[in-house]
Amino acid sequence: MDHERYYAEAFYVEPGRCFRMVTSSTPGSQGSPTHCPKPVKFRGRFQDGIGKWHEVWSCIDHVGDLTDWKRISASVTEMSSGTRGP
Ligand SMILES: [Zn+2]
Questions:
Q1: 7 contact partners, CB below 8 Å, separation of at least 6
Q2: What is the pLDDT of residue 77?
Q3: 5-38 residue pLDDT tens
């Protein structure tokens, strides 16, 4: 099973924002990738197209692409971890 390709493996690393780029469904912005607007809920590692690992943040929709992710929350005592998506 090949992973679906996203915008030439486009992603970015910014604390507190989801690492994925998504396509806006808004008319007029067709085809232009934008930063995933969803709130981040997880932090984990992501391997890019050349095999390099990055520590990134993710929303719940994209956490399935991460490895060794952890749920983040306002309370640091409330953390859970796993290697599988929801
Ligand atoms: Zn996302």
A1: 21, 33
A2: 43
A3: 444 457 888 888 999 988 766 666 666 778 898 9
* DSSP 8-class letter at 65: G
- Cα 26 to ligand 1 centroid, rounded to whole Å: 17
* Residue 9 · residue 48 · CB < 8 Å: yes
**Of 72, 3, 78, residue with least CA distance to 44:** 72
If you measure from the C-alpha of residue 24 to the centroid of ligand 1, how many angstroms do you get, rounded to a whole number?
12
Question: Where residue 84 falls among pLDDT bands split at 50, 70, 90?
Answer: low
Residues 6+ apart with CB under 8 A from 11: 19, 20, 21, 46, 48, 54, 56
